[in-house]
Specification:
Blueprint lengths: L2 H37 L71 H31 L9 H43 L4 H38 L1 H5 L5 H5 L1
């Protein structure tokens, strides 16, 4: 391997170690305080569920009388003994993609929920990035495999497993947000198809309230994960950085 490549790899490792140590000692406490302040804002703190409701813009139209059999001026011959004759079908072909239109126009997304998601998504992304950085930091600290004196290494492995769990949970929060929009779209399409059934409309309201609670819970969980990672790393910082004590130190 060329010396230039080796030097660049070592520089990358040294830079990553410095970033990780700064992250755990300074950035994590700042992030915890920032998330606590966010949870105290009107957007998240004891918000009334009615504030996250959104009008669907799908009116329940009055019923339309399609055919009146008592009216003899409909162009059909119906003498009571024979079924009415059908009108001749005239097919009109129009080029383009067929689509369903609604009387009130498009159905909007839930604006209060979208505003919350706009705030929460960068927080989730930051947790994923920070977890990945810590994971690489501890991986670089793990010494080569030897017999005995592996207590510090086991601490590193346990901490690494905890960080990987946090990273996976944070990535799953993104999937939760996308599933909300998909589920809401399916229920809204039912409202558009059956506008007179109030249960579908109520299902949309319940889904929006559930997502509000989920987003609040996500912010709480992100804060808790930052707190737990900061706690476990600070308590075991010495063992994480120097998992094995030298033989000379153990003699004295």
């Amino acid at each position: 391997m060329p010396n230039d490549t080796v030097i660049k790899v070592q520089e990358y490792k040294d830079t990553l170690i410095l970033k990780a140590e700064l992250l755990i000692t300074k950035r994590f406490p700042e992030k915890i305080v920032q998330l606590n302040e966010l949870l105290s804002t009107p957007m998240f703190n004891e918000r009334n569920f009615e504030e996250v409701h959104q009008d669907l813009n799908i009116p329940a139209l009055p019923p339309v009388l399609v055919r009146n059999h008592e009216d003899g001026n409909d162009g059909n011959t119906d003498d009571g003994d024979h079924p009415p004759t059908k009108r001749s079908r005239k097919d009109v072909f129009v080029s383009g993609q067929p689509m369903l239109t609604l009387p009130g126009g498009p159905v909007p997304c839930n604006k209060p929920i979208c505003e919350m998601i706009k705030v929460v998504k960068p927080i989730i992304r930051k947790l994923v990035e920070d977890s990945n950085l810590l994971k690489m930091w501890i991986s670089f600290m793990i010494p080569k495999i030897e017999d005995g004196n592996n207590f510090g290494v086991s601490i590193q492995e346990d901490t690494l497993a905890e960080i990987q769990t946090v990273e996976s949970e944070a990535a799953a929060f993104f999937d939760q947000i996308s599933r909300y929009f998909l589920s809401r779209a399916k229920v809204v399409s039912k409202v558009a198809k059956y506008p007179h059934i109030d249960d579908y409309r109520r299902a949309v309201v319940e889904l929006d309230e559930k997502e509000y609670l989920s987003l609040w819970l996500v912010v709480c969980e992100v804060r808790n994960r930052y707190s737990s990672l900061h706690d476990i790393v600070i308590k075991n910082l010495e063992k994480l950085k120097k998992p094995r004590s030298s033989n000379t130190e153990s003699l004295y």
